[in-house]
Design goal:
By secondary structure, this protein is α+β, with helices and mostly antiparallel strands. It has 3 helices and 11 strands.
Amino acid sequence: MTTIGITASERTHDPIHRVSMAFERKGGSLWVFTWLDHGGHLPEHFHPTLEERWEVLEGTARVKLDGAWRELTAADDPVFVGRGVRHELRNASGSQAVLRTEVTPAGRLEEFLTESARAAREGLYNARSLPTGLRGAAWLSEFALRFSDETVMCSPPPALQRLVLPATARLTRRYRA
């Protein structure tokens, strides 16, 4: 397994999506190092204000860009994901895949991924990214609204999210942890 000079204690683990991440800021970019276990999955989403450049350092991952899946290996050129482009990542290779992503501008993606992983460890949402109770609904609605300028999940549809999330956030305010 590739360590890339990063110890396990420096990684943030998301048990629901079966992924661990570490972060490094350089200039105006954020580098995200990702260890995607077999069966790991980053759900479909897009970034209205961020661009990403994904590359596989070890193993194989499947990347979906605007509805089309493709295999990505260390031998392939990096994949550019522009602003507003829906994308998703899966690992069905049978072994761990190690990836590196450059995010420009750095924005708050590190905060988004770290908080999402913490909520996964606390059981606030399930594998379908749905809240597991009132506390989860309170967290998820506030979280999605807070980061909607940078990261938007594609399920439920963004138009529905714009209608439902503000009301859910107001109704569940007292359940926030």
